[in-house]
Design goal:
Layout lengths: L45 H9 E7 L5 E7 L7 E6 L7 H12 L2 E6 L15 H8 L7 H15 L5 E6 L1 H12 L5 E5 L16 E6 L7 H10 L4 E5 L15 H18 L2
Parallel strand pairs: 3-4, 3-5, 5-6, 6-7, 7-8
Antiparallel strand pairs: 1-2, 2-4
Helix pairs in contact: 4-5
């Protein structure tokens, strides 16, 4: 029998990969481990195998010549397609890297560009009050046009895997929406609690777009969500009984029920438009 952190309900479309287990923040599940896992001369223990085999640090060069870092995780087998993962304001940190690994385990070649490198190279942090306060200082400094250039090179980096989607969280949710409107090369977009979407809602996405919000999000009032729904009837919008950051299993605001419901829709969206 597989340990609890290796098991997943296949009827959940891979949701089990993303659900926080006790004692394990990052979880990946397969139908079964490789046959020689843990054997002398074989693969390392399963809990370390996916970390060592799926993800690696990469370098990207944007259209203006700027070099930024990033993280890439490729599936163990043939990819279904590509996925660009856009960070929160906390950089390409442990959580975002683990999200890439989990999507890769489901078959999507995933790249998270370090879109804060123009402001603070290699920046990443956790979720303590002091770290959150410091990370928020970057918001006013964001160059959205430059961020689109950095997102575009990430799209190019994974297009060899097949159709490409983008998913973003927090600030990244806004980037995902803007990318759907302004960039080429995408098949669909998914945004989680993006605070800048409402003020950009006059923009029209060029690809199918799915948005997730929380009704207890103190940084995104429901009036903003109403603006998005009114101006963008072509976008699928869902609201959950949760706060900001409800899908991040390393934050105190993590809400497992909302996370699982949103993730189920996200995976269905990817299946429909990517593969």
């Amino acid at each position: 029998m597989l340990p609890p952190f290796q098991s997943a309900n296949i009827n959940e479309g891979g949701v089990g990969l993303f659900v926080k287990r006790r004692h394990f923040v990052s979880t990946v599940a397969f139908a079964g481990p490789p046959p020689n896992i843990g054997a002398p001369g074989g693969m390392p223990a399963f809990s370390d195998w996916w970390r060592s085999k799926l993800g690696t640090q990469i370098s990207l060069t944007a259209s203006d010549g700027f070099k930024l870092g990033g993280y890439r995780a490729d599936p163990p087998g043939s990819p279904k397609g590509g996925l660009v993962v856009i960070q929160e304001i906390f950089g390409v940190n442990h959580h975002i890297r683990s999200v890439c690994d989990r999507f890769a385990a489901l078959g999507y070649a995933s790249v998270a560009p370090a879109v804060f490198d123009r402001m603070s190279p290699d920046f990443e942090c956790g979720y303590s009050p002091a770290e959150v306060e410091n990370a928020r200082t970057f918001i006013a400094k964001i160059d959205w046009a430059a961020m689109m250039r950095d997102t575009a090179v990430a799209i190019d980096a994974v297009k060899g895997a097949g159709p490409v989607a983008i998913v973003g969280y927090c600030m990244g949710g806004s980037v995902a929406f803007l990318a759907a409107c302004d960039l080429d090369g995408l098949s669909c977009a998914i945004g989680y609690y993006g605070g800048a979407i409402a003020r950009n809602a006059d923009k029209k996405p060029k690809v199918p777009t799915l948005l997730h919000f929380g009704d207890q999000d103190h940084s995104i009032p429901l009036s903003d969500v109403a603006i998005v729904k009114e101006k963008r009837p072509d976008v699928e919008v869902h609201v959950y009984h949760a706060g900001h950051g409800f899908s991040c299993d390393e934050r105190g605001s993590y809400n497992e029920a909302a996370h699982k419901e949103a993730l189920g829709r996200t995976l269905a969206w990817l299946t429909k438009y990517v593969g």
